[in-house]
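Exercise: predict the fold of this chain.
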Amino acid sequence: MTLRRGLATITAIAAWAALALQLVLLIGQMTGNGASVVEALWRFFGFFTIIMNLMAATVASALVLNPAGHLAAPRSRLVTAAAIVFGGLVYSVALRAIWQPAGWQAVADHALHDATPVLFFLTWLAWDHGGLKWRDALWAAVPPLAYCAYAFARGAADGWYAYWFLNPETLSNPQLFTNIALLTLAFIVVATALVGIDRLLSSRRGVARA
């Protein structure tokens, strides 16, 4: 097994395990408070952190099982890397100091916000480079925009929003649109930086092969 495939395997296992642990913990917590398993599942899939880790787990699995498929293509790897890296950075900068989980929740928290982002980024670095163009960074806008539409639809159905900065019940339309624009722009900036790294690694490896 090559190094890059080994990294992808470890990443896939770690991501799926983190998701499974968080799901078990959430079901236990919510059913203990009188909610049903279906309600817990509905809540579980409402967090962007979960969506990002599902993306990482799926793409890492594709790199192992079907590296020639669309899910393992350069653009798919880029969008997923941008999403998971951005999520890890935001958590570390803005949320880690105000959220102090304990026990197994701390394990799940670090796995979702630290381990998976680092492992997926390392996998992305180890994989082939040179297949990206600068305009491919614009595809990184798809996950945040799709999630916003999804979150608004969910919120309209049950009145619950996972994140305060995407809550139309407490924010004005200008504030909401500004938050969405800034979030989307941040994803594109991260993706652009990754495209730059991709091109740098491609040129260096090309020189090394020459």
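Check your answer against the key: Helices lie at 3-32, 37-44, 48-65, 74-95, 103-126, 142-158, 173-209.
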